[in-house]
Amino acid sequence: MHCVTEGDWTERYRDQIGRPPWEVTTPALILDLDAAKANIATMAGRFRELPAELRPHIKVHKSPELAMLQVEAGAVGVACATAWEAAVMAESGIDDVLIANQVVQPDKVAEIVRLAREHRITVAIDDVRNAEQLSRAAVAADAQLELLIEIDVGMGRCGVRTQEEALPLAQRIAELPNLRLRGLQGYEGHCMLEPNREKRVEDAHAANQKLVAAADHLIADGHRCDDLSAGGTGTYYITGAHPRITEVQAGSYALMDCFHGNLVPGGFQVAMTVLGTVISRQGNTVVLDCGRKSVGIDFVTPPLVAHPEGVVRYYAEEHCLVDFPGSPPLDVGDTAQVMAGYGPTTVNLHDVFHVVERGEVTDIWPVIPRGPGRS
Ligand SMILES: Cc1ncc(COP(=O)(O)O)c(C=O)c1O
Prior knowledge:
Layout: E1 28-32, H1 33-48, E2 53-54, H2 64-72, E3 78-80, H3 83-91, E4 96-99, H4 106-116, E5 120-125, H5 128-141, E6 145-150, H6 163-175, E7 179-185, H7 189-192, H8 197-220, E8 227-230, H9 236-239, E9 247-248, H10 258-263, E10 272-282, E11 285-288, E12 304-305, E13 311-315, E14 320-323, E15 335-339, H11 344-347, E16 352-357, E17 360-366
Parallel strand pairs: 1-16, 2-9, 3-4, 4-5, 5-6, 6-7, 7-8, 8-9
Antiparallel strand pairs: 1-10, 10-11, 10-15, 11-14, 12-15, 13-14, 16-17
Pyridoxal-5'-phosphate is lined by residues 57, 60, 79, 100, 187, 189, 192, 232-234, 249-252.
């Protein structure tokens, strides 16, 4: 059987190069490269003033090209969400790759130890059995894996809940071959949802303190905790200023979206939109052909249309319904840009970025697939 999606599918988008961005085939993920470069330079500049290093989380853009621009601007390496993202990053030439999640499923464990034979691969861990599994796989592959013990600093997601639980895990890791404890991870994701800036600062300080206290607890028992990794776009200026936090995993600043625009007003530009075509205009409503299969609908912040007076009323699978107070400024066949509510869950719905520079599409960049398949 010949699968029609086999081969280099990015080639199928190449006829878009040279078009103005409003004329590409919709729905389309549009990357304003100049804006993304400006965001990358802005954040790199801010980290030159902060004690921590920047380790951008690339689950936001899933693009080796953008990750390389971040590393060239001074990032120490990247953070990834999946083993498959880590594979593309490492094989694209990024030396220091953190998977900021637990890796348990056997195919993913096999993938990360395969990578760790030739690359510096670090993975988050919060369970002794997982440490034993990773050690066995690393020995079998003749690879060295580095680990960050994840501490839950208030989000209630992964991570051991207390420093007392972290200690036996560190002790077991010290006994296991082909593993090295690099430090701790304590992502304060719950703070990103706090709209009040003062309260966010307070919560982030408390989260950072819990992480540092856990590190001290392990250090007192003779363990090394050289790296303390935390933070995101909503807290980079708080967590990155802590003298003991060594790296910040901010990611969304590179592309921005409505959610992060509300969190860090000013300084970062919207570099990614989804282009849709008006396929119907009825009364005060226009219907764009970019529904929830091309714009991630997140629970936190709804998407916005570029026309400020238009309100996105509803997202169906392939339809975005926009209401205007009067006669819509868009007619059937016109295109409009939609700013994602949350960028990472939008990028993930697309095969490629349409890279726009100086008013035209100049390149097509792949988005890393969700699973092991990659071009
Ligand atoms: C572990 C971890 N680190 C860092 C980030 C990056 O956050 P942001 O995209 O808000 O910068 C996330 C986002 O969900 C995350 O889960």
